[in-house]
Amino acid sequence: MEGDLLTGNLVRLVAVDVEEDPRLISEWDRDSEFQRLLNSESAARYNPKQVREFLEKEIDSMHFYIIQRLEDDQKIGLIDLNGIDWVSRNAWVGIGIGEREFWGKGYGTDAMRVLLRYAFTILNLQRVTLNVFDFNQRGYASYKKCGFKEEGRLPSALLKAGKRWDLIFMGVLRSEWEELQKSMIEKE
Amino acid sequence: MFKTQLFESQSLLLEPYDPDKDAVVEAGFTRRWHYTWGSMLYSEAHPLSAFQVKKKREEQLKRCAESRDAFLFAIRLRENTKFIGVVELPWVSWSNRMAWMKVLIGEESLEAMYLPEAAKMGLRYVFEELDMALVASSTGEFQPQIFHALQGLGMRVYVRQRLMVYYQNRYWDRIIVGMPQSDWQIIYSEE
Lengths: 188, 191
Known about the structure:
The complex is a heterodimer of chains A (about 190) and B (about 190). Chain A is α+β, with helices and mostly antiparallel strands and about 190 residues long. Chain A is about 35% helix and about 30% strand.
């Protein structure tokens, strides 16, 4: 494949701008549902300076990208590969669409497909892993579309809004991702 | 008032980790791949010097003291206070009342003898002192002795992460076992 590997059908993944993006991320955090979908820990508010300090500290240890719409270059979310294990060639992925008007419209799925292509064809990983919470059915369906399989769940591991929820573990192997690419090409 | 001790069992003590003394012994344990992999003291599993272990453990103890979302205990034999391993709670999620636990014993022969007893002390601390709703621990099919010990205590297999660990020229599944507090109360209610 030629061209920009970090560009999909709807979005491109761009490097984080530590000057501008902390303000955007801090604003997304105002929507507590965004935070609850993204993070198992308590939702909280962080000012742009705190976000910037976090990014500056972690930027070299993780692949952190902002999701940008192709249509108008609007930045709508974030995605990252973290906890990369170069011996076992595994990484964890986290993703969130901060702009609520773009939920459920395929942007997250497209961003995840782009990131998986990058993980398997450039970073030479053999597996990508994620956690999703069982109240996030939209995310779960999106990850399945991208090739992730459920590998189990910790029952009632999370407490949100007074109710306990399962913590679901999903993973996709490189061989499975390659098969999926073949079947998608055959369908086209 | 209370029927059981948290930091003493028949053969073992859970004591404060001493970075000056214990790190020297623990550095020797890191020659065992299973110990080093489990400890995650370094990103790749390889033997560590006493200096490296001391530095990592001091950082961990600082975090334990400041954030209170992690705990570290040295496991010692009651009979002679010999340091044989650690019980770690590397992450306690207070908002979810969920904790991760690691039990590491340095010598293989001692592991077979004391792992269940040490793990049970860890579980008791998690449930009866921290009041966690769930505890989880990761192991793998490449560590049958640890896996069976945790299962023997009543922990259930909840997650099997396929081919997640590379060891000795092949990939192995990482297995996450766990126990809810309700199970602990049923299994150990008589103690």
